[in-house]
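tool_call: predict_structure(chain=1)
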Amino acid sequence: MDRRRFMKQSVPLGIAAFYTPQSLTATSLIPDLNALPLESVDLSDPSDEEAWAKISAHFMKPEGVTQLEHGYFSHSPTGVLLETQRAMSDIQRKTSLFMRREQDQWVEDTRTDLAKFLNVPATELAITRNTTESLNTVIQGFHWKAGDEVIIGDQDYGSMNEAFEQASKRYGIVLKVAKVPLIPKSDEEVVDAYMSLLTAKTKMLHLTHLINLSGQVIPLEKLCKAARDKAGDELCIVVDAAHSLNHVPVFWREAGCDIMAASLHKWTMSPLGLGMLWVKEAWIPRIWPLMGDVNRKDTDIRRLEHLGTRPLEVFAGLRYALKFHREVLPIQAKAARLRYLQESWTASLKDTKHFQSNTPLEAGRSYAIANLKHSSLKPAELAQKLWDEFKIFTVAIDHPVVKGVRITPHLSNSIEDIHRLNTALKVLDK
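tool_result:
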């Protein structure tokens, strides 16, 4: 399944209207890319609109639209697009000379750069196309035996659920589903939801760090510690960090998981079509590659990223995105800004009659993403009204556990965009 289908339950209304030819001008179709220099900005105050406008200026934006659905993927700074275009031109000019003489070093330089950025060993890092591919490599390639148990969450991403269901049919593994509270009263309530299912037969614990449906951030470190204390090193703890990597501040080497996967075209702001898979050294030989690769040692992480020919220009864009973060955008400042934008609209919900949050709003339990529901409007109806009446683009989530509209601001948004959302919610609250 395409990772964007949200367990076949989301209804992204407004997409057809958003992408009609009438809504796109010639200048938006063929942008004049002029990347700004990477100049240091004081970003210590998440509410300093003048400072954050300098960051926002690095991004192209749709005309005539308040875009508040950046969870699908993160648009890249214009510098990333330029570097990608330059690399594409260079590769096309060199033709197979590049592929045969420079490609391998190109990939390794990117791997080294990304590993340093994440502070993980390059020997444990595979570069993939997205989170779905990364986690399917793990799920389909794990050395399962009939009767092995896996714990997943009831709000995990749909593509991952389907991957586990396929593995269950193929290998006879048992899926146990933790009921994660929508608005937890404490970290312990979330931890208990998973730990109550853990047995001696549990071989894998799959955790969605930031739930894409609602924006809830689960207590990852506490969960990993509790699971490790109870099950030991033979339990493989796998984390879906699609929405949390470079969004939620985490020291991954200290988090306690064995495997982590993410999409770099989300909050790392790389070009589309880049993901990553971090596998601790001890687990690399214990996973079969998704694509056949018998020429590398079982301990070589590269066997888990065997794709054949692929677009390599995006690697140049990724390296620029990492440079953008290192030189301009510290993760703590970025997280604080995203949290500030979210709080600037969710704080108003307490004064409404018909709106309610589907997201825990305490500090640390959510960042950019939040989800709201209306007492009488279905998610699709609310999303359509926001689009039709206010040209605010969002996405409807109609899931067994989470039913509402997901709002995801970005660094390209200003506080004025949030004010427009607040005005719309006041009108729809009558």
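agent: The mean pLDDT is 92. Proceeding to next step.
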